[in-house]
Amino acid sequence: MARETTVIPSTADASRISPENGVIDVTRLRVALARLARKLRRHEMLGLTPTQLAALATVEQSGPLRLGDLAAAEGIAPSTLTRLVAVLEELGYVRRDADPKDARASTLAITAEGHATMERLRAENSALLTQRVMLLTPQQRAALADALPALEALADPDPAPQRPARG
Helix 112-134 vs helix 50-62: angle between axes, to the nearest 10 degrees? Predict the structure, then answer.
């Protein structure tokens, strides 16, 4: 039988928070996730700003794509994008190609060097996270493993609403 879970928006009632009674403190969750994300971003980013790194990841995942599409995906102004792309090009992480559908436009594609950089950053992040996870107790690691599907659902850009199971 599934237990009932309550979601509370702040730590105002911290005395009710425990895994046993199914109360989720959204503020604690947000702070924990933000702190973990900061730890993962603190590693060497190969001289890239977080915005440059995010744009490179988008080009890798969605490219080749037009500059305007990258600006829209990243939520940055075209003038900012121009400077950002110039840096990524100078570092050899992306290249501009003529858009076969529009001779006036160009597309941006990741280079082999850009792929290698992203792979290196992922490996560094995985190693750091592995070290942190190994500091947890076996019970905490088991709880984290059990929570992975829920965390993946939270990270989904367009999560489908969950319906209660019928029994």
Answer: 110
Q: How far is the C-alpha of 96 from the C-alpha of 110, rounded, in Å?
A: 9
Q: What is the dihedral of CA 76, 80, 82, 83, to 10 degrees?
A: -140
Residue 46 Rama label (left phi>0; alpha psi -120 to 50; beta): left
Which long-range contacts does 15-19 make (Cβ < 8 Å, 24+ apart)?
A: 19/143
Strand partners, 25: 8
Residues in the chain with pLDDT values less than 50: 1, 11, 14-17, 167
Q: Encode pLDDT of 32-56 as tens digits.
A: 888 888 877 766 667 788 889 889 9
Contact 94, 108 (CB under 8 A): yes
pTM of the model: 0.69
Q: Does 157 sit behind a cis peptide bond, omega within 30 degrees of 0 on the bond before it?
A: no
Spatial distance between the Cα atoms of 50 and 45, rounded to a whole number of angstroms: 8
